[in-house]
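I had to read the description of the data format several times before I understood it. Each protein is reduced to its one-letter sequence and a matching series of backbone shape codes. The format is easy to grasp once an entry is in front of the reader. For illustration, here is how one protein appears when written out as sequence plus structure tokens:
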Amino acid sequence: MFRVSSSRVKILLVALPAALLLSAFILLHHTPSGGGSKILRIATTTSLDATGLLGVLKHEFEKRNPGVSVTWVALGTGQALEVARRGDADLVLTHDRPLEDEFIKQGYGVHGVSFACNEFVVVGPPEDPAGVSGARDVLEVFRRIFEAGERGEAVFVSRGDKSGTHLRELRIWSETGVDPRGRPWYMETGQGMAQTLMVADQLRGYTLVDSSTYTKFKERVGLRVLFRGDARLLNVYRAILVNPELFPWVNHQLAFEFTRFLVSLEGQRIVAEYEIGGVRPFQACFGKLGELGVHDPYEEEQVAYWLSKLREKT
């Protein structure tokens, strides 16, 4: 029977949230020493940071805008949006549409627009004790993991942090009609995607991970992609400006300029051509959600808005 020692996971679960919140406070309130610097504060999902894409975008934006300093804190989407709800960020980069829609509807965010996408994948040990690689869809994948877990043959490692990945995972469980929470084979780390991937590797377990983070760290783990391709696993990243009418102190102009850069031809080229080990982990998707099967009237309005702003600049 499969046995798991979860004491280390529990210790990390308790310790990490406080550390993340402290890091968010320090990073988003830090002022560079150089005189005349303009600071953009971003609350971002962890995958854009961990993969290195945001660092490349920062470098190019700062090169084009001397005197600007782009700073960020990497958190789960839920935490990133909470930081923005306090006015402690100028811009959010997140990937959970229901939470983002609520954030915008409540008036905290304006002019949200999609700029990149990838997919979620299910990874696990090559021996695949739950037999998920032969599943028809991701619902069957999760049912097989549940059944194998109940037999003591498998473990599932969840982020458990209200991130976009965690929320997607919970929606999939809900759609299957089973609830794994509280089961001895279901572990919650409370950590970012890279750390959760490492824990899953140590436990020889399954987890849901965005394809870009897996690409970045796949050589460090023994886990393999066992399922991908379900439309439910499309993962879209959106930039949302924090509403300056609610928080007059935010740097709305700089958030606007950075978002316009993200959706520009150059920004989209950087997203599309960014490579990790010869693999391009992201797809540029500004104005392309319809092609991906996502029909969102708000998105269509915002694409038109940003296209008009791009034309103004030229």
